[in-house]
Design goal:
Rossmann fold; transmembrane; AB_hydrolase_lipase; eight-stranded mixed β-sheet; Partial AB-hydrolase lipase domain-containing protein; two-stranded parallel sheet; alpha/beta; 34% helix
């Protein structure tokens, strides 16, 4: 049965202030530049994207990308990915007995040593909580205002907590009502705290269907489609598989597509945990066609020819995610919606993945498919947190010792066992304590009543090689930057010709919006903004830039005022750069935008 090939040419929520103290697919030809070849009868669709260059980029010097510290590759470590690498999934031969034994020994040693490492971190995190716990207990036992009342949204938190409690009681009693926005919930009651995006979508009157996407190097990754059940019916399961049968939509839908991409050790469920204030749900209710992309492995590692016990299944880092995962997700969304472009919004690692993909040595032709890229807490330059003792320990390990400590498979797999088997509430509390200790985050601006839910979608499986890329001896933390050594970044290009050779981004790079957390110690978003707006990047087009001084790394997703400071602005940037506004529904809050 012949396959269909998708070829891409290279070319208003209520204001919150701090307290004082889809459519159904229709038939028509896909608009250019897609080329669709179909057999006379029977259709089997491939879901990965083949990016065919149609114009030459300027001669350039190869970008210095931190190499992986995973299992040694058969090909040289290089930033450049060939067309053959992108077009064909690799064939894997049978591993020899010696290699299998070696990998099993590394797996055993890394499980034990990484468990000890994690245990040390958890113990230190719990010890660090003793003083604030004692202070909190003191305030509760004395007739004075508890210090929680100093939280910037304390009154709003208490109001929302009471509203959720009353709504749960009403749901249990069988009372149903239609919300003002017209989105009728189909789930309710007490929060079950489950790792299920569909469940939380239904609690706000939306729904979710899951698509399986195959990357060109053989991974099966998940793509979640958020939709309004009043105007769209979920497709059958066989139509949502990695290689599916049935017609593609041929007229672009009336809702412009938006793809969201998550951060490190998270899934895209992180965009769905704040009820109506969630970025995914607010964009969907505003009128966008929202898709949530998940990178390889995630909660359920799958590959077309490798098993999870095979070290070769884990031989990847962010370069493969940029080269294979992101193009595959974009291709599937465009194929399903009939549009030729989409808006992309990403957080943290998702921004690094995107910035690498669009750079001149990776997949710059993907730019033709993106109308705008919204970067939330952009991770292009390292912040001071990478110099903390536990990160410094990881950054000084030679590659051989890294493999002994963290292996050549999934990174600290015991975390996934805890996620699967631990009770949700204790797990959520412990997850916050550990992540806060590691990264210096606080929940001061979050709705604390939803905090346990926020940690239901983390962590996920990632490779030891990916973590080595971020934190290892030759990785991001050491280099200080995703695409070159940060120490080289202060060098001012001598002339225009030199600029073209050293710029990260070529002509045609999509419009960019940046939301920078001013109190983020993990990454330095201001440094990226400075570069993009300087003469070093003549082809970068920044259409929106905002520094939020009080925000920490996750506040762009979970702060209670993020709907006003982030979500609405993301919606406007995507709409202002949308190339087909005349044929799309105007999103709520974007009326009158030019």
């Amino acid at each position: 049965m012949a396959s269909v090939t998708v070829v891409a040419t290279k070319t208003a929520p209520t204001a919150l202030t701090p307290d004082a103290h889809h459519h159904e697919p229709t038939d028509h030809e896909l608009s250019e530049p897609f080329v669709i070849s179909q057999p006379a009868s029977g259709i089997t669709h491939g879901t990965s994207i083949e990016l065919v260059p149609v114009h030459a980029l300027p001669a350039s010097e190869p970008l210095d990308v931190p190499p992986t510290a995973a299992v040694a590759r058969s090909s040289p470590s290089t930033a450049t990915v060939t067309a053959e690498d992108k077009a064909f999934a690799p064939n894997f031969s049978h591993l020899g007995l010696g290699t299998r034994i070696k990998n099993r020994l590394l797996q055993a040693s890394s499980y034990t040593l990484s468990l000890a490492f994690l245990g040390t971190i958890v113990s230190a995190a719990l010890l660090s909580r003793i003083p604030p716990t004692l202070v909190a207990a003191f305030y509760r036992l004395t007739p004075r205002n508890h210090r929680d009342m100093l939280r910037p949204f304390y009154t709003a938190e208490q109001t929302l907590f009471a509203q959720r409690r009353e709504a749960a009681k009403a749901w249990k009693a069988g009372a149903r009502s239609t919300p003002e926005d017209g989105f009728v919930p189909t789930e309710g009651g007490e929060d079950l705290l489950i790792c299920d995006v569909q469940y939380y979508a239904r609690r706000v009157g939306l729904d979710v269907e899951t698509f399986q996407v195959q990357t060109d190097d053989g991974f099966i990754i998940e793509l979640w489609h958020v939709f309004d059940p009043r105007s769209y019916t979920s497709l059958p399961a066989d139509r949502r598989g990695p290689r599916f049968s049935g017609p593609l939509p041929k007229i672009p839908g009336h809702n412009y597509p938006v793809l969201l991409l998550h951060g490190l050790l998270q899934s895209s469920g992180a965009f769905c945990v704040n009820d109506d204030n969630s970025l995914a749900f607010s964009l969907a209710k505003a009128g966008y066609d929202v898709w949530l992309g998940n990178n390889r492995c995630g909660f359920r590692p799958r590959h077309i020819s490798l098993q999870s016990k095979d070290a070769r299944m884990w031989d990847w880092d962010i370069r493969e995610m940029a080269t294979f995962d992101l193009p595959a997700l974009v291709a599937r969304v465009l194929a399903e919606t009939g549009h030729s472009t989409l808006g992309l919004a990403c957080h943290s690692q998702g921004t690094a993945q995107t910035l690498i993909a669009l750079s001149r040595d990776f997949v710059p032709e993907l730019s033709a498919r993106l109308s705008a890229v919204c970067l939330l807490a952009p991770a292009a330059y390292a912040g001071p947190l990478v110099r903390r003792p536990w990160f410094r320990f990881m950054s000084v390990l030679p590659r051989s010792l890294w493999r002994v400590f963290f292996g050549v498979h999934s990174f600290v797999p015991v975390m996934m066992h805890a996620h699967r088997w631990a009770a949700p509430r204790p797990y959520g509390r412990l997850g916050y304590v550990v992540f806060s200790f590691l990264f210096g985050w606080t929940d001061a601006r979050w709705d604390r009543g939803l905090r346990n839910r926020m940690f239901r979608f983390a962590p996920v499986h990632v490779s030891a090689g990916l973590m080595a890329w971020w934190l290892g001896r030759d990785g991001f933390a050491h280099a200080g930057s995703i695409l070159q050594n940060a120490s080289e970044d202060s060098e001012v290009p001598a002339d225009a010709d030199h600029v073209d050779k050293t710029a990260w981004y070529p002509p045609g790079t999509p419009a960019m919006g940046l939301w920078i957390c001013g109190s983020d110690g993990l990454v330095d978003g201001q440094k990226l903004l400075d570069r993009l707006q300087s003469e070093k990047e003549p082809h970068a087009r920044v259409v929106h830039a905002k520094v939020i001084p009080e925000y920490e790394h996750l506040d762009v997703l979970w702060a209670m005022d993020a709907p006003q400071k982030v979500n609405c602005e993301v919606s406007r940037v995507i709409w202002q750069t949308c190339p087909v506004r005349s044929s799309c529904v105007v999103p709520v809050g974007c009326e009158g935008e030019e």
